[in-house]
Structure formats: C-alpha cells, structure tokens
Write a structure and sequence with these properties.
147 residues, alpha/beta, Oxidized Rhodanese, domain 1, five-stranded parallel β-sheet, two-stranded antiparallel sheet, 9 strands, Rhodanese-like_dom, Thiosulfate_ST/Rhodanese-like, Rhodanese domain-containing protein
Length: 147
C-alpha cells in the first residue's frame, strides 16, 4: 500500500546522477549573492546589539532624517532623468566598513538596499543584512530618528 504523504525529505528540487543528488540552482542564483532580509524592528534590535547601519539613500534623503549613527554612502545619485548608480559605491563602503563588519543596509523603501546588500555580499562582505521596507518602515514603526 502506498502512503498518502511523503516524508518532507523527499520534497525539493534535486537532480540525480551517478554521484548522488545535488540542489538545482539557476545560473543567476549561483552568481548573485542574496543577503538576509529582516523586518525593520529586527534591524533596530540588531543596531542596538552593535550592527552598523549603512544608509544607501541619496544625500538629500539622508539629510531629511536617518537612524542614529547611520553612515550614508549613496547607492545611487539623483540625475536629471532619475537615478544613476554610484560607480564608487564599493570603494566608499570599503573605506568605512571591513569585510567582516556586521552591517544592516537600508534605503527609503527597500529596493536600493537589497541591490546594495547583494552587491556587498558578492564583493565578499560576510555579515550583510538588508532592511525590508527601508526608512519608510522605520518611520512607520516610530523608531528613533536624527535630523
């Protein structure tokens, strides 16, 4: 008689070969490092525990308010037609942070910080955490802000 359910270890994407099974990964997954992403309250707790806050918003956004002790290195700059990537982003971050530093990365809504955090992970930074929801969520949760 066949069981009505399969044990959990039988689920998942694997490919079998002569040498056993290995997880399937797309080429994009293999080349792009994906940082951990946490809710804003968890990010605040991490900051209180000693993680350093990297704010990747523009200088103007940062000047309008930011978490205490945040370091501003814009991931993008405003241009006449929108936003342009900061080609010196990794160099500037590397001048302020070490590869093993515990860094939480935030932007305004969470999109730029995820891109920036992924780039940092790909560059060898080992303890990078993205803030889901960004500074907007920080404000909505009434967390401390410096102006």
């Amino acid at each position: 008689m066949m069981p009505l359910f399969a044990p959990a270890r039988m689920f998942g994407s694997v490919r079998s070969g002569m040498g056993g099974a290995e997880p399937l990964r797309s080429e994009a997954e293999a080349e792009v490092a994906v940082p951990r992403s946490v809710p804003v309250r968890v990010a605040y707790e991490l900051q209180q525990a000693g993680h350093r806050y990297l704010d990747v918003r523009t200088e103007g956004e940062f000047a309008g308010g930011h978490p205490a002790e945040a370091v501003n290195v814009p991931y993008m700059y405003k241009t006449g037609s929108g936003l342009t990537k900061n080609m010196h982003f990794l160099d500037k971050v590397s001048a302020v942070f070490g590869k093993e530093d515990e860094i939480i990365v935030g932007c305004q809504s969470g999109r730029r910080s995820l891109m920036a955090a992924s780039e940092l992970c790909s560059a060898g930074f080992t303890a990078v955490t993205d803030i889901a929801g960004g500074f907007s969520a920080w404000m909505e949760n009434e967390l401390p802000v410096n102006h």
